[in-house]
């Protein structure tokens, strides 16, 4: 019976270095100091990175850890039970498949892939290996704030959802950020911009909390305020098929930034500001019932002024403040991943969920490319062909 998960980390960039530091207490990359977490269920036994300097640094600081220049060699070594990937988005699915084929558990960084076709291939392989754990690093599902929202919505406390709006523009990135590496903000290197790099957590949370829409219409601006090929500004409209709608607004050029989520139901409303403060308004009767009982319009005027009997008798308002401890949700995902391997504790972010956020991002891109509403069950092969067109156009522009 396995008592501890032997973990291999693929990629020693900022995120991979953070996981290594969290699990060992040794920091290999400059930046915010990292503290060793209480994660007795996991032991880092191997890392893989293509950078010789990083490999030598790890060997000197952590001589008991196996270091590889090729992730396949690490998978074949017998030194790991599980992996976490912190590499280019295009490689997530490929590495996940190679690990699963070797009976190694998989935790993928978000997103699970760039396009649904490759993610579905990964999911199909995982289905054939039900004894293995396959998860995605949707760490915000461990955020106590969003777990509380999930509980409220699933319990029916705000009734049937009518509208969801999220403006999340706290991703400010100057041109210097994009100029750091040639692969950044390219179709070939990352497969997109803010939708695949900064906002996947919010895209995942919208579908996790409110479900998947049926149709998507989007306006994406490419290289709008930055000299890049991919999207740096997005406004997307979701149609849930039952009259309910959703709106997502995100960008990387808002230097002041906003983070506000509103979820309106027929029995209440949730408002989240800055992912810290949640205001929950609960109705003791549904809005439809209240609407039917209002016959005196003076009551409406009083309601607007806050002096109505309806407001006093039928509306409860609760405000909750949450602490957002940076890094804690990552630790909790790692704990949940290990617990599933060791004792089958249910996963908070199972790998099969990873395709949903990718599907939403793909639909947003496709809608903006074609300038029309897109069914969420779009043709995956068609999307892949359009993405390849973007990559070819990008290469031609670089040659010119």
Task: Name the descriptors.
400 residues; alpha/beta; Rossmann fold; Dihydrodipicolinate Reductase, domain 2; 2 domains; 9-stranded mixed sheet; 6-stranded parallel sheet; 14 helices; 22% strand; Dehydrogenase
Brief synopsis:
This is Dehydrogenase. The chain is of the alpha/beta class.
Question: How would you describe this protein?
Answer:
This is Dehydrogenase. It comes from Candidatus Epulonipiscium fishelsonii. The protein contains 14 helices and 15 strands. The chain starts with a strand and ends with a helix. A hairpin with a 3-residue loop joins strand 12 and strand 13. It is α/β, with parallel strands linked by helices and 400 residues long. The chain has a 9-stranded mixed beta sheet with strand order 14-13-12-11-7-10-9-8-15. It folds into 2 domains: 5-137 and 327-350, NAD(P)-binding Rossmann-like Domain (Rossmann fold, 3-Layer(aba) Sandwich); 141-323 and 357-395, 2-Layer Sandwich (Dihydrodipicolinate Reductase, domain 2).
Topology overview:
Elements: E1 5-10, H1 14-24, E2 42-48, H2 52-61, E3 66-68, H3 71-76, E4 82-85, H4 89-101, E5 105-108, H5 116-127, E6 134-136, H6 144-154, E7 161-168, H7 175-179, H8 200-210, E8 215-222, E9 231-239, E10 245-251, E11 259-265, E12 268-273, E13 277-283, H9 287-293, H10 297-305, H11 309-314, E14 315-321, H12 328-343, H13 354-370, E15 374-375, H14 380-399
Parallel strand pairs: 1-2, 1-4, 2-3, 4-5, 5-6, 7-10
Antiparallel strand pairs: 7-11, 8-9, 8-15, 9-10, 11-12, 12-13, 13-14
């Amino acid at each position: 019976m396995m008592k501890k998960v032997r973990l291999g980390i693929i990629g020693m960039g900022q995120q991979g270095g953070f996981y290594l530091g969290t699990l060992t207490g040794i920091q290999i990359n400059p930046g915010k100091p990292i503290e060793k977490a209480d994660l007795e269920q996991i032991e880092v036994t191997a890392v893989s990175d293509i950078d010789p300097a990083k490999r030598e640094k790890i060997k000197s600081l952590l001589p008991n850890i196996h270091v590889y220049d090729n992730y396949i060699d690490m998978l074949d070594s017998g030194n790991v039970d599980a992996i976490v990937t912190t590499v280019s988005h295009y490689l997530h699915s490929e590495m996940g498949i190679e690990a699963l084929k070797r009976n190694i558990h998989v935790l993928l960084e978000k997103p699970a892939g760039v396009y649904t076709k490759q993610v579905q291939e990964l999911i199909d392989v995982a289905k054939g290996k039900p004894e293995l754990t396959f998860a995605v690093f949707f760490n915000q599902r461990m955020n106590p704030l969003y777990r509380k929202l999930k509980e409220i919505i699933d319990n029916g406390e705000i009734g049937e959802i009518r509208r969801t709006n999220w403006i999340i523009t706290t991703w400010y990135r100057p041109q210097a950020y994009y100029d750091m590496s040639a692969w950044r903000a390219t179709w070939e290197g990352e497969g997109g911009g803010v939708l695949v790099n900064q906002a996947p957590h919010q895209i995942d949370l919208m579908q996790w909390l409110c479900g998947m829409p049926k149709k998507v219409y989007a306006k994406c601006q490419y290289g709008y305020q930055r000299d890049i090929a991919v999207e740096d500004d997005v406004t997307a409209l979701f149609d849930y098929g039952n009259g309910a709608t959703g709106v997502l607004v995100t960008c990387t050029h808002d230097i002041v930034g906003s983070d506000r989520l509103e979820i309106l139901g027929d029995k209440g409303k949730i408002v989240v500001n800055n992912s810290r403060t949640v205001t929950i308004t609960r109705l003791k009767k549904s809005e439809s019932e209240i609407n039917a009982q209002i016959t005196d319009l003076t009551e409406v005027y009083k309601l607007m002024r806050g002096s109505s009997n309806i407001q006093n008798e039928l509306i409860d308002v609760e405000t909750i403040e949450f602490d957002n401890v940076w890094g804690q949700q990552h630790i909790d995902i790692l704990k949940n991943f290990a617990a599933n391997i060791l004792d089958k504790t249910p996963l908070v972010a199972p790998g099969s969920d990873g395709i949903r956020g990718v599907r939403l991002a793909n639909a947003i891109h496709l809608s903006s490319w074609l300038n029309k509403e897109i069914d969420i069950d779009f043709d995956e092969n068609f999307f892949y062909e359009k993405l390849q067109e973007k990559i070819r156009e990008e290469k031609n522009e670089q040659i010119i």
